[in-house]
Amino acid sequence: MLSGKVVGTIVSTRKVESLVGSKFLEVQMVKNGSETDEYIIAIDTVGAGIGEKVLITTGSGARLALLNKDEPADAVIVGIID
Question: What are phi and psi of 33, to 5 degrees?
Answer without folding.
Answer: 80, 0
